[in-house]
Amino acid sequence: MSAGRLAPYGLTPARKRRDRTARGAILAGTLVALIPLLAIVYYLLEKGLGSLSWSFFTTDPTGNTFFKAASIGGIQSAIIGTIEIVALASAISIPIGIGVAVWLVEYGRNSWFANTVRFFVDVMTGVPSIIFGLFIYIALIIGTGSSYAGYKGSLALSLLMLPIVIRSVEVILLLVPAALRESALALGAPRWRVIFSIVLPTALPGIVTGVLLAIARAAGETAPLLFTAGATLKTNTNLSQFMNSLPVQIYNDVTSPTTAVVDRAWAAALTLVLMILVLNLIARLAARRSRIA
Amino acid sequence: MTSEGPASEIADMEPDELLEPDPATAGSPTPTDSRANAPGGASAAATDQGAVQAKPAVNVRLEQLRAFYGEAEQVKGIDLDFRANEVTAIIGPSGCGKSTMVRCINRMHEEIPGARAEGRVLLDDLDVYDPSVDVVAVRRAIGMVFQKPNPFPTMSVFDNVAAGLRLTSRGRGDLHPKVEAALRSAGLWDEVADRLTEPGAGLSGGQQQRLCIARSLAVDPEVILMDEPCSALDPIATLRIEELVDQLKTRVTIVIVTHNMQQAARVADRTAFMLDGELIEVGPTEEMFTKPTDPRTEEYVTGKFG
Lengths: 293, 306
Hints:
Order of helices and strands of chain B: HHHHHHEEEHEEHEHHHHEHEHEEHH
Helix content of chain B: 40-55%
Helix content of chain A: over 70%
CATH topology of chain A: MetI-like fold
Number of strands of chain B: 10
Number of domains of chain A: 1
CATH superfamily of chain A: MetI-like
CATH class of chain A: Mainly Alpha
CATH architecture of chain A: Orthogonal Bundle
Mean pLDDT of chain A: 90
Largest sheet of chain A: none
Strand content of chain B: 15-25%
Low-confidence stretches of chain B: 1-53
Number of helices of chain B: 16
Number of helices of chain A: 11
Order of helices and strands of chain A: HHHHHHHHHHH
Largest interface: A-B, 25 and 32 residues
Structural class of chain B: alpha/beta
Radius of gyration of chain B: 19 Å
Shape of chain A: globular
Mean pLDDT of chain B: 83
Oligomer: heterodimer
Number of strands of chain A: 0
Shape of chain B: globular
Low-confidence stretches of chain A: none
């Protein structure tokens, strides 16, 4: 409150009311946005936590979905499948994606070709995930007359991840101050060394964030895996065969008429979220440790 | 444009000093070679002149240098000599092309998309714009210190100084002696000797700039270009840099762009005045400030504009 001497400079009551209204509206918006987030976490914990146990993680689903809870099995094959499929997809898409982003920022810049690449990357970002699955299905399963395989699911996921990695890394690389590149170039460093020794380390925390985003997105995808990696009950570590995965397991379980199986879907969903959370924490710690400033 | 003639004549009209290197140059086919061999050189003239004088007197020469950003001509045909072991200051109002001109010398100008340069920049007698010349080699010979101190944020003090050596694949073996020597040359050793492993970005602004100078010294360049190195620093840090420039000129040729005319007067042996992309006048610093030939120089150095 501006009283006395400063009163003429104070806010009018109407202005104060508008300020309060605007702040209130922003706060309300934030709270509304938080509701689904908190609700998801709440439901996952509420419905999934009860089914978590050691044997849940260490046994395969039995396929006995119409009998009592003890016999339906856990989700070991789905966890292992998801880890392997996503790891291979990451191994394919992360190096290529970072490479494309580096090329766009450091070499292509605003050339005709670079802008064309950007356009197609943007188009790919908007492609529904099932289309990537269909593409792999037609190209590698119908096309070759072979069957489902874990690595085919990885390829579908890597197509999905690629544009996400490219776009997020490109944005981060653009944030690296041009002065750092210049001072390294002025020391007589070749451009590739500037990129590897200065640009990428400086951008590392941001790159990690972008890459994690892509991994998290891919780990939760069902559609590209349904007709590429297939679904199976038994734990299988061979990427060239049918492979189970958490999203596909959830997809199959949640439509079951048996309560215990639906509960397994919730617990599997909770597991997936926790896995991504743990990955996030590990990557962030690693990125922080590797950075001095 | 008309002023260009007289200005470049002045640049060429220090006959006794310009003639000095000629015997040395004549002694061997190329000045570069003669300098490389100077310590044990066969040329009597070179040995007589001693270590410092062994360098050709003109270290960097600009011939009709023009620089463009797209279609806009920012540097409009400059002829200018930078003499070995001298400090040459470039003064002039903002936007007159002094930074652009200096960035052409080590070919940093072309890093800006759409930017290009014409004309010749001779390092001794080698045109750095010759198609056979490797741009990376040019920048190893001609170092640069920028306006804003920009130590590499991911690196420690030590690694910042070693960065140049490592980035140019000369970082094998124990770098400690080289890093220490560079830090001592930059007058920073005593302040950072016990914090070599701390982040370079944690130093004060003035220390960071001296760290950047140490970083460019570590790769042992022949020429150092300084683009307004003190404009982001306080007066005491500025003084430290100026003292440093004075000490370094025995080792390297220094070109310093500055907004600050007092700074030019304090550090430079010779001063060049630029206006609208043209070189108006160049001469010994004292003359430039006391009895400039061109009326525009006089107006600028007396503070009538700019």
